[in-house]
Design a protein that fits this description.
By secondary structure, the chain is an alpha/beta fold. It contains 18 helices and 18 strands. It is elongated and about 90 Å long.
Amino acid sequence: MQVKNGKPEKIFIGVSWPYANGNIHLGHLAGQNIVTDVFARYHRLKGNQVLMVSGSDSHGAPILAKAEDLGITPNKLAEDSHEKIVETFKKLGLLYENYTKTTTDNHREVVQNIFMVLNELGFLDIKESEQYYDAKVKRFLPDRYVKGTCPKCGATNARGDECPECGAYLNPTDLIDPYSTLSDAKPKLKKTKHFYLNLSKLQPDIEKWIKKSDKPWRKWVREFTRGWLKQGLEPRAVTRDLSFGIKVPIEGWDDKVIYVWIEAVVGYLSAAIEWAQKQESPSLWETFWKDPECKHYYFVAGGNVPFHTVMWPAEIVAYNQKYSKPELLDKYKLPGESNNDPLQLPFDVPANKMLMYQGKKMSKGDGTGITLDAVIDKYNPDLLRYFFVRYAPENHDREYTWKDLIDANNNELVANIGNFINRTLTFTENKFDGVVPEGEVDEEVREKIDLTFKKVGKSIEECKFVQSIEHILELGKFANKYFNDQAPWEKIKTDRNLAGHIIYNNIQIVNALRILLKPYLPFSMKKVNQFLNIENEYDQNNDLEENGFVREHVNNWNFTEIRPGVKLNKAEILFEKLENPEIS
């Protein structure tokens, strides 16, 4: 998959944007963030050109509601939350080519550009509808400002968009005994006008595209998406009665903003455009967005699947008609746009299911789950990264348990990976003065290493991250068995050269594990880098972290030998055994 005609592939990665109404929680890590970083780090190491973007979703009713509860402005909440999210991502080693926010002028310009093009092409219709209105505060109520009883499960804390108890998608008018969250008034339905995206008009094109393109998708994502289409797509409102957000750029609509569901997904494009501007090459985004060879991946949590397999593709399909309309090309040119090629549609949407805690979906808005603040300074960031790959809910919801976290650390990182690395390097220090002894790689060892690189790479490319970890653990088990079976502590008593040969092979496996685990455990593998005294090794991810861009696209996803005579540095314990994990 990786190199075509000797050239690196282009990989565009869009990561769903967290609401800027507080720090992220563990569900965000399980849903998309960690596996995405593994995916991007791997492709950079492989020598591919990667553009990974995301940002803080700084508009929408959840932010407005939280700000009102706190008695601060939504801009203040969004900015504070954005800074905290960025700090958290840094602690976890999450690397983006560009992580931004939806409050930039660039984002507003791109969103309004797309809105106006869809409107001029006839994909937006004005419709009158009834929406709940709070007469006491004289405001229309967005879905999250209306609560009531869920018609599905009877829970009394259901919102106008979703029930936090049973997870059912709802409309405000579905609620039984609805009430306004802004006052003690009972909301009344009142007529209002909005723009609607005519999805039914776009359904034939979307169905045709999905039928041709959804083979790489996870089975449940494919079936979920086709189920949506089977029910039939209906027009969906793209504006709201709010004062906070991106204004509708049409005269007479000053009291409306563009709905966050259609605005936020445009962020994948606007963030790429912003990245190009930061690179001082305004048209550079087109090399990812207009190249048919570039693969577009969208990493999202399960609830966001239809917005990335149906809604966002529908926006792109509609917008692409601009490129066959000369009268629109100059009028609605995107920032830095230099050619009339269409925008590319998704290649894969490797969504994860939900991470549950005590039987409920983790949600900032509902105050359920575990905040990242509760664990980020308590546990090794590489343990958190490892756990949320090892236990990623790829195909079904998973219950988060502290026991699983401890088992992943104690039984795998400590007993498998860490144990082997420590035994090998400590033996080398004690018996060979820390110098790599003479030896050659056994055929069995080389074959196992080469096969592991192939298996892990293939699994990552297919977005089978749980499987990719299992392949690395298999190499760890092989390594521990090799060490035990060869028994260098016995051989060295009678044949120092043979013992040296065995340790030489063990050191090569340590180095193979170091490279294989770079995408997963970047902090720990930097330590192993020091243990092995590796100098002048180019690492694309370190380059991005230190300089803000990748200078060289070379394939570093391969096994290289640590030659005899290299003086190793004293090793330390990589992973500590954990007990009493639960946080109240």
